[in-house]
Structures are given as structure tokens and as C-alpha cells.
Amino acid sequence: MAREVGRRRDLALGAMLAVVYLFLYAPILVLVGLSFNASGLPTAWGGFSTRWYHELLASSDILAALRTSATIALVVTAVSTTLGTLLALGLERTVRSTVLDTLVFLPAVVPDIVLAIGLLSSFTLLRITLGFQTVVMAHVVFDMVFVAAIVRARLGYFDRSIEEAAQDLGASRLATFLRVTIPVLSPGIVAGALIAFTLSFDEFIIAFFTAGPRVVTFPIRIYSMIRFGVTPVVNAIATAILALSMSLVLLALRLTRREVRRAVEG
Amino acid sequence: MRGHRGRAAEGRWLSGAVFLGPGLTAWALLFAFPVGLILLYSFFTRGPFGGVEYRFTLRNFERALDPLFVRVLWGSLLIAAGTTVIALLICYPAAYFIATRPARWRLPLLVLVVLPFWTNLLIRTYAWIVLLNREGLVNRVLIGTGILDRPLTLLGTRLAIVFGLLYVYLPLMILPLFSAIERLGEAPRQAAADLGASPARAFVRVTLPLTMPGIMAGCIFVFVPTLGNFVVPDLLGAGKAIMVGNLIQSQFFQARDWPFGAALSISVLAVTTLLLLVQARVLTRERRLLARGA
Q1: CATH number of the domain that B217 lies in?
Q2: ipTM value of the model?
Q3: What's the pTM?
Q4: Which residues in chain A have their CB less than 8 angstroms from residue B104's CB?
């Protein structure tokens, strides 16, 4: 009888999860469907067509915005991955302090809008021209924290005896760091970099405040398109972005599968 | 001997500086300074041409207490709290289900929840414009099935905002809940059952309190970005329903009253800090309880 009760409970809980999946995926699938709708209207199916993708590829301002975002995200990824990895190593191995830990990770919990107006005010006060460089600086600070958190999780499993072994065999500290420490940490570093790239590429609020009038990132471009009205090209963009970010996440997952599995399966 | 130890300590500080130096510098310049500046600005006066005049005043906070603004602040708190509670009620059973599956099923089930989170926030919000439009899918289904005979105005309501926020931040609730329930395992529930507790009683007295850290974390992950949000209310509120984030944004772009905008965002920051302190307290109490139990 207890098993019967358990099965019924599982059924109810599983139904709840099904509702969550439906809620999460139905709107996305509607967009994907509409992106192939020749009529472009959400109200009538006009047959299958890739027309909106052709239009997307033909609009130079969207492609320019894509390039801008990709460039910003690449620079941000390079800088924040370096800073974040060093930060993780420093927090784990040099100065161990819970206060410092809490302070360092604060940028991840402070509301975006507070950080956004703070950065805008600072750049204005210091007379730094808003543009590419200010968006990069703004993105670096919170991306760095995410990279640090991911690399640090990997450091938790780090077996330091292999570093000692390298040094016993005559490797210098720098050589040990570059040829032992970094390679062992590399899956964490790559996962951190992928997440840093996605976060920067997708980031809207802070970029909106710190980009100034001339730099148009991809999310800023999408925002103005949506504000202007529902256009079918946005559906095509949505589908493309979906495909891209999902493959990036799956790639990051593959790289960190061992850690994630260990974390999930205990 | 002394020299040796001195050199070791020196090396430690040196490597500390090399590892932590660049990151902490970026942190100080691009995080601590901006947040400090906002705090400072909230006590200054708006200049005649929209700049900031360095004259101390409490007027910005007094103005935030004007009934007009209090209504927006209170409304934002309600929307954020409502979104958080609904997310918790939906996600707890779902997370519980995932956490009690065989180990090899857990990761794929969890990834499916998190995947949509990695697509652009604007696009996920846009999906709801398409659905909630007057000619949108929701209205068409409701009319098509004969439940309604006229389309409902869904965009521009608080309900639309709550739906949008829920959609955007749901994965942030499920992850910490999952990890708390999963870490708990089967044993405490089994023990409670062996001691004669009914399943409901075991849940309320054992599972729920022991997963409280996960509940707190999930609530904070959802509440914080929801409270200060301006994208979702901007797009789904359609100018009719606004949140404090929209107010802050308009102070910086249209009204050009930066000190008042700063004061409003300090109020958001204050609520956030308060919540984090409550969470820290709950976690400490939990740890003490567990330590006593062990």
C-alpha cells in the first residue's frame, strides 16, 4: 500500500514537472514555428518559408549589432577569464578569508540596475566617453566573478600532490603553474569562458546604460525592434539565438560533465 | 630560521598580490566605487541642468515617500513577492521529483529546465508579447474553444508582468531547491516514517525545515532580479503597469534627476541587503541545529 501511495505521489510530482516543461518550452516553440511562417503573422499560417531568415541576413544593421556584441563578448571573455581564474586561485590558495569571499562575489547578487546606474554615474564623473570600452569594463566585473566561482569549484577537486611531484622533478614554480595547474583546471576555465561569453553577449541592462548613443549591441538592437512592434524578423533572430546559445550550453556541459555529474549524483 | 619563515610569508603575500591584485583592482574600480557613488549621489541635489550638485540633502528620500512613488515601490514589492511565491510553489514539487529519480536521470531532467535560461532575456520576454497580444495565441485559443467571446487585454497588466518574470527566472528557483532536496537524501524521511510520522507530517517537520537553505537561496535568486527589473515591465507592462526599475531608468534618461534615481535604487539595494542578512541568519541557525543533531 505504501508503494501505491508513493506511486501516486510520484505521478502528481511528475505532472508538476511536466507543467514546468510546458511553461518553459511552449513560448519558445511558438517563436520557432512562427519564424518559418511565410505570412509572418502570429494569426495565420501562410505555409513554410525561410523568407524571414533571408531578410535577417540582408539587414546590415542587425549584422553590425551582432558583430559589435561578438567583439565585446570576445574581449570581455579574454579579460574576465584571466582575472577570474587568478582570483579563484588567489582566494583558494593565498589569503583565505570568508569576508573577502563574500565581498568578492557581491557583484553577482547586486541588482543589475544598481550596478548599471552606478557605472554610468562613475564613467560620467570621470569623463570616460561612453562606448565600446565602457561596455567592456562594465561586463568584465560581473563576468569575472562567475568565472572565479566556476574555476573555484574545480579547484575543490584539485589534487595538489601532482604540483609537488612536478616541483620535485625539477620544474620551476612558473613551469608547474603553466604546465600542470592550468591544464588540470582547463575544463573549468573553458566552461567559465563559455559562460562569460554568453553572459556578455546576452547582457542588456548594463550595456543599455553604459553603451552611449553610438554603440549598438545586439540585445540593444533587439530591444528597439521589439519596442517598435512585433516583426517577423525577430522570430528568426530568436530561433537563431536559441540554437546558438543552446549549443554553447551543451558544449559547456560536455566539458564539465564530470564535475556536474559528481555534484548532481553526489 | 627566521629568515626562512620570513621569506615564506613574503612569498605568500607576493603570490597573493599577483593572483588577487588584478581582480580586486577591477572589483574596487568597477564595483565598489560605482555602488559607493550611487549611495553618495542619493544624498546630493539635482543640478539646474540635470547634473549633480554636491549639496547634502534628504529631499530625494523624502520624495521617494510621496504616495505616488510609494505606490510604485509597494507594487514592485508585491509583484516580486508574488512571482517568488508562485515560483516556489511550482518548483518545489518539480525539484522534488527530479531529486528523487534514479541518479542517471537527474542531470538530463535538470538540463532541460536550465536550457531556456541561456537564451536572451529580451527574446524570452518577446515570446510573451506574441502570446499575450490582443490577437495573440492565448486569446485565440480562449476564443476558439468558446471560453471567451471577446479578446482580453492581457498586455499592460500586472498579471502579464508576473507571467513574464516567472518565465524568465523560474530556473533560478529550481536549481537551489533541487540541490537541497537531493543532498537531504532518503534517510531523514525514512526515519520520520519509521518513527510513525505520516508522510504529510514528515514533510512539514523534517523535509521542509531541512531544505530551508535551498528555499531561501531560490527565493533570493528570483526576488532580487525581479524587484529591480525594468525590461520585463517595460515590454509587458506596455507603459501602463510600471515597476521601480522603470522609475529609476526614467530618472536617468528622461527626467535627468540622477540623485532621485540613485535614492530609488538605494531603496532596492536596501531591500536586497535585508534579504541577504535574513538568509545568512537562517543559514547560521540551520547549521547550529544540524551541529546539535550530530
Answers
A1: 1.10.3720.10
A2: 0.81
A3: 0.83
A4: 265
